[in-house]
Uroporphyrinogen-III synthase
Amino acid sequence: MVPLVVIRPEPGCSASLAAARAVRLEAHGFPLFEVVARSWEAPSADQFEAILGGSGNAFRHGGRGLAALRRLPVYAVGDTTAIAAREAGFVVAATGNGGMQGLLGSVDPAHRRLLRLAGDERVPLTLPRGTTMEERVVYASIPRPMPADMIALLRTPAMIALHSAEAARHMAAQCVTHGIRRSLLRLIALSPRIASAAGDGWGEVATARMPNDKALLALALQMCQDPGPRGRD
């Protein structure tokens, strides 16, 4: 079985590993990012009617500024983000399963003034007519170098799960740094935008049918029995 490598930051890395192993994938976790809090100033809650949450990290690392916003309902991009929002004391109005743009379709028409709590790297959004949005960057994902055991693993065929465009670019750069042959590796991306950010030269690049971990792991399960590319460069 071709191994699956997960590089997203914690606690997402451990969650993806557990889900992958539950469906009998050979999965290895190497968090190549560390999530850190950013200094930010919370606006007045009176200026908004709801919060858009694209990652649980916004609620784990938002710090004291979150307290002033807790009366605002949260629209969470997925279940993990919804759990983090509730643990931080927020009420979740709706939980999406199709990415941030799809989440906007779940927003109550009465909630026209939105506050987006986000990281340094975030997906651009097209707002519905009549809706306004302000953004506050409350956390950042700091890239880490590949550890030696990951480098050794990637010298043979493997699949790599990509959860963000930032991860795709970092993965490509690290392969160059360590002289890893991309043609031996297959990428499984959460969305076409993420797949595009990885660049060229990979053995295969596949995109999950839906931008969530369940769909990504289902695709990995389909691909894992194939030994994959043997390297053509």
